[in-house]
Every structure is written in C-alpha cells, then in structure tokens.
C-alpha cells in the first residue's frame, strides 16, 4: 500500500492512495502516520474512504520523526566518482529534523551558499523499535520506504572544520516523499532504480544493487549504536552523478528544478530558491 500526508505545513492529514493514484482521507481510521501506527499500518480498501478533492500539497509522509540518519559513501560507483574508498563499515551522520521538507516544496539555499548539491536516496522508515537486531530480523522493523533528497551544501560540509551535519541540515535540506510504500508493495528493495534530473538533464542514475551495505545490514548496524524508534528515517546513500562529481563541478542555483524518482516510490519535484 501507498500512504501519504496532505495539507498545509503543520496541518497535514493522513491518506492512502487508491488504485488510480487518488488520495483517500485516512484521518477517520488513524490520527496520523506516526508512532505505533507505523508498526501496524491499516490494511483496508481505499475505495471505502473519502476521496480528497483537488491537488493538495503533499507533506512528509510520516509524522513524529525523531531523527534522520544518513549513510555516506554507500554506493561503490559514487565513492569512485569523488575519489573515495568505500568505507569498511557504514559512515554515519545525522540531519536535523528541522530540515524536513515536503517532496515538492521549494528547497532554500542558505545565505552565502556556493555549493548546493543533490542526492537521491532510498529512505527507510522504521516501524517498530529496533535495538541490537540481527540482519535477518531487520526487515521486520521497517514500516516502509520513501524517497529522500539528501540536499547538501558542500562548502559547509567539507571545506570548513567540524562534521558533515552542518552541510546537511540547513532548513529544507531533507525533502521526503511523496509516499510511504509498504515493503510488500515495493518488492526487492535491493533492485530499485534511482534517478535525479536537474533542469531536465539526467544527472544521477543508479540502482540499489550497488549499495556497499544493504538495507538490512544498515538497520542491524545502526541498532547496535542507537535505538531506532518508529518514524526514524534512514537515508541509505546516493548513486553517482552528484554535482561535486561532475567535470567541472556543477552546483545548484536559484531557479533550478530537481526531479527525483525511485522505482515504485513516485517522484519529487522541487524548485531551488535563495534565502532572502
């Protein structure tokens, strides 16, 4: 099943998509797509629910997100394009939850930004609390999957002192959605195509088969470091084609349009704006 949240920022309501891709209001069934609901998402006939009229704004398809965990250099071909060696264990960083953004909301470059970049990533949404889980048991803790754009400001991330987090956490730098797709509806999570287009030009093209660490391995590893709670999002790394990997490097400017797609997970479409 495919779930979503719609409405003005901060006032989103839960929904499910029917077979024709129309939103059906789910607020009479669950209060929101958050917490314990994610561990037992409703299985029902969407046709029995009220149709959502028009084309409302889509928000992040999950509420109550405690943390966004990023995995760096997790595609062998992406590591190669930037001259890095794939890590021996997952490279972990955090993005601030204040960076969360709807899938089609504008992405705002912070004042003085010189090297804004795109990163299409498979997002894993935790549905059940996970601590010290095995690789075999890890998939049972997943509520579903979504698209994450791990927007990055490379000058802040790499050229200054400190950690990656500051180049990853600017406001609007975590567009998520449009949908939360349940594992059985998605199929083989290690066989998904990922694409990013910027102004109509294909920049990234990859497949989750090229991950250095697969989804189950990542969940198991992270669960030894921290408790994963329902609603937590893991951004599992990006394929080649990021801006800093281009020759010459190419970075985002106001007016650019990013379109991100992952097999079975829909599409994001966001305009880039400069902070006022």
> Fraction of residues in helices?
10-25%
Number of domains: 1
Q: Tell me about the biggest sheet? A: 5 strands, mixed
- Overall number of strands: 18
* CATH architectural category: Alpha-Beta Complex
Number of helices: 5
User: How do the strands line up in the largest sheet?
Assistant: 5-4-16-9-10
* Weakly predicted, low-confidence segments: none
Describe the structure.
The chain is mostly beta strands and 276 residues long. The chain has a single domain (58-274), classed as Alpha-Beta Complex (Fumarylacetoacetate hydrolase, domain 2), CATH 3.90.850.10. The chain is 11% helix and 30% strand. The chain is built from 5 helices and 18 strands. The strands form 5 sheets. The protein has a 5-stranded mixed β-sheet with strand order 5-4-16-9-10. It has a 5-stranded mixed β-sheet with strand order 7-18-17-14-15, with no helix packed on it. Strands 3-2-1-13 form a 4-stranded antiparallel β-sheet. Strand 17 and strand 18 (266-274) form a beta hairpin. The protein is globular, with a radius of gyration of 18 Å. The termini are far apart. The mean pLDDT is 96.
